[in-house]
UniProtKB/TrEMBL annotation:
Official protein name in the record: Histidine kinase
GO MF, one example: phosphorelay sensor kinase activity
Statement: the UniProt record of this protein carries the keyword Coiled coil: no
Bilayer-spanning residue ranges: 35-56, 68-87
Domain Signal transduction histidine kinase internal region span(s) in chain numbering: 152-229
């Protein structure tokens, strides 16, 4: 569409340059052949314009050879100015156009005038070529950045799967030693989550209701192996069921809450809330804080780093994420607010 618009603008410009003298020549007796002879003036303007636009500016000016570009243009506009004046005199003589005899000063002033017109067109075409090159380069850069961001986004999504599966399979493995029937239920829960990860995860956005169901399956799976002294709640409030969100954005936060918020000996809690109203989503987690020891390096913070990067790629400048530990070090909170 932009190319067609540009072509139309060029066409209208030169149609105006070639046809605009006709209303003033109407009734003067100028023949079509004489008109064609006078068309050398706009033809020279066209040559100056496109010679700079298509060749001189890209070859010399853009590459930093400004002196060569200036020298060629000075020679070009002066030469065309001289040729044009002699051509006009030849045309007037050929068609016996009355007029006074021109002296050297007249030739010089007319040549200077026409050369300045050519110079103006040369400068304008150079500026237009530079603007076009800038826009093209800027668009290419944006496309390159978008392609790189998309590639990085897909890579991050593929990295989530094995990280998530590793934690979940460890939980099921621990459960098999306690209760085989419940382990089978856990595997069924896992199959539902895998279906979401294998199919819905391939889309750039999924229904928030599907993502909520995925989180509920994961939380139910985690609760199977927890003791009675752990309080786990998940409260989703979705005002609009058709709201969409980037897939698997929140699962790493939930994983992190269960990893650091559960103690085998002390009372613990994980409270998760998700609120969706209009075009806003707020996901918050509050959990008891039981940090890993320096010897336990499982995970290495990969999940949270992925959350940060995925938020930047999926919702640039449209999200806030606040997180931290309370002053007494006993409670960890994390809240993501997304403007859709």
């Amino acid at each position: 569409m932009n190319r067609k618009l540009g072509f139309a603008c060029h066409f209208l410009l030169w149609a105006y340059m070639f046809l605009s003298p006709l209303p003033f020549w109407r009734g003067t007796g100028i023949t079509f052949g004489q008109y064609l002879m006078y068309c050398l003036d706009p033809l020279f303007l066209m040559i100056v314009f496109y010679l700079n636009y298509l060749y001189l500016t890209p070859k010399f000016f853009v590459s930093g050879k400004h002196r060569y570009d200036l020298l060629i243009n000075v020679i070009l506009v002066i030469s065309l100015g001289i040729i044009l004046n002699y051509w006009k005199e030849f045309t007037n003589a050929l068609y016996s156009v009355p007029g006074r005899h021109l002296d050297a000063l007249d030739y010089f002033s007319r040549t200077l005038r026409d050369s300045l017109n050519f110079a103006i067109f040369a400068a304008g075409s150079t500026a237009l070529a530079l603007a076009r090159r800038y826009v093209t380069a800027d668009n290419a850069l944006k496309e390159s950045e978008a392609a790189r961001a998309k590639s990085e986004y897909l890579t991050l999504r593929s990295q989530i799967n094995p990280h998530f599966l590793l934690n979940t399979l460890n939980n099921i493995y621990a459960l098999t030693a306690i209760d085989q029937e419940r382990a089978q239920d856990a595997i069924q829960q896992l199959s539902k989550m895998l279906r979401h990860m294998l199919y819905d995860n391939q889309e750039s956005e999924v229904l928030l209701s599907d993502e909520v169901q995925f989180l509920e399956n994961y939380i139910n799976l985690m609760k199977i192996r927890l003791s009675q002294n752990v309080d786990v709640t998940f409260v989703p409030q979705i005002a609009r069921p058709d709201v969409k969100v980037a897939p698997l954005i929140f699962i790493s936060l939930v994983e992190n809450a269960f990893k650091h918020g559960i103690s085998p000996t002390e009372p613990s809690f994980v409270h998760i809330n998700l609120v969706s109203m209009c075009n806003e989503i707020t996901f918050s987690i509050e959990n008891s804080n039981h940090p890993k020891t320096s010897q336990d390096r499982s995970g290495h913070g990969i999940g949270l780093n992925q959350v940060q990067r995925r938020l930047e790629l999926a919702y640039p400048e449209h999200y806030t994420w606040t997180k931290g530990v309370s002053a007494d070090g006993k409670i960890y909170t994390s809240t993501i607010h997304i403007q859709l």
